Amino acid sequence: MRTTSTARHANGPGPDTAPDAPDAPDAPDAHDADDAPHAPDAHGARLGRIMRSPLGWMLTGLTGIGLVSTLTATGPGPVPVLGAVAAVGVYWLVTRRVARRSTPEIARRGAGREALYGGAIGLGFVAVSALLITALGGYSFSWAGRDVMAVLWSAVMVQAAAAVTEELLFRALALQALEQLWGSRAAIVITGLFFGIAHLGAPGAGAWSALAIASEAGVMLGAAFLWRRNIWFVAGLHFAWNTTEQLLGIPVSGHASTGLFTVDAHGSAVLTGGDFGLEAALVPVVIGVLLAVRMFVLARRGGRLLPRRTARHLQAG
């Protein structure tokens, strides 16, 4: 099945004009052609082609959503979520007006079902990883005694906004643009690597944590998007993943969490993830890679991958 998000949008030629039409105006002479203001039109057409290219609309969207996120991500109360709503609006505007294609990946119909489905996978991923690490002696948890509703409100606002914004940037924009250039396989590898690199600035980050994030998160979330072709599915997975970590008191990508529990780590960083948290532990990396492989296989079976040769054909058109 070929999705509309990767379909070609080429402008066909205009209606033919018969050369011997009786009412057709005389052809302009050479002097008139030289004086015609065609240069600005040519430049405008060239700029339009650049903007409508995959890299053009990708960079436009990244800039717009990045600006919205910068202004709202650390705001009080519901401001981060309102920023995420605005980011969806920016994505819709760029995709429809600049890229000139439809947006089934952010369709409202079925969004709740897809988000819950992804959320269940994200919750299971973190819960199983944390339980295995605990069983191996790496974690011990204790009740933090904080205001439950206050912690839940803060976690939901921050993590929902982060999940939606990051998935719009990395999967909806970057992955879909790059797969139109080089196919789905190359796109998932490139965006996965960049997702890992983007987390290098986090506390406790290093080469291993970046590789771990690239594998278990960047590649897995990319495979999840290719499988479902729905941003709400991957945003739900991402949200449940981060929120579960925060509520358990585990650092989220190196950032200390105000959760309902506190966690004490014991043993090597290979087992616990060290200061970076669970995402740099070996157990979730293995589970994440296995999930990514399974999702990628399902995407291939469903005909949802864009081969490289098809991507070249789309660009040629």
Walkthrough of the structure:
- It is a single chain.
- The protein has 317 residues and is mainly alpha-helical.
- It has a domain at 110-316.
- The chain is 66% helix and 3% strand.
- It has 12 helices and 2 strands.
- A two-stranded antiparallel ribbon has the order 1-2.
- The longest helix has 35 residues, at 148-182.
- It is globular, with a radius of gyration of 24 Å.
- The two termini are 20 Å apart.
- Mean pLDDT is 87; it is low at 1-37.
Question: Key terms for this structure?
Answer:
single chain, 317 residues, 12 helices, globular
Topology overview:
Elements: H1 30-35, H2 38-52, H3 54-72, H4 79-98, H5 111-135, E1 139-143, H6 148-182, H7 184-198, H8 207-228, H9 231-248, E2 261-265, H10 269-272, H11 282-301, H12 308-316
Antiparallel strand pairs: 1-2
In short:
The protein is mainly α and 317 residues long. The chain has helices at residues 30-35, 38-52, 54-72, 79-98, 111-135, 148-182, 184-198, 207-228, 231-248, 269-272, 282-301, 308-316, and strands at 139-143, 261-265. Helix 6 (148-182) packs across helix 7 (184-198).
**Estimated radius of gyration:** 24 Å
Beta strand %: under 5%
Q: Class by helix and strand content?
A: mainly alpha
Seen as an oligomer or otherwise, the chain set is: single chain
**Widest beta sheet: strand line-up:** 1-2
* Average of the residue pLDDT scores: 87
Helix % is 55-70%
Spatial separation of the terminal alpha carbons: 20 Å
Low-confidence stretches: 1-37
Number of strands: 2
Give the topology string: H per helix, E per strand: HHHHHEHHHHEHHH
Largest sheet: 2 strands, antiparallel
Overall 3D geometry?
Answer: globular
> Number of DSSP helices?
12
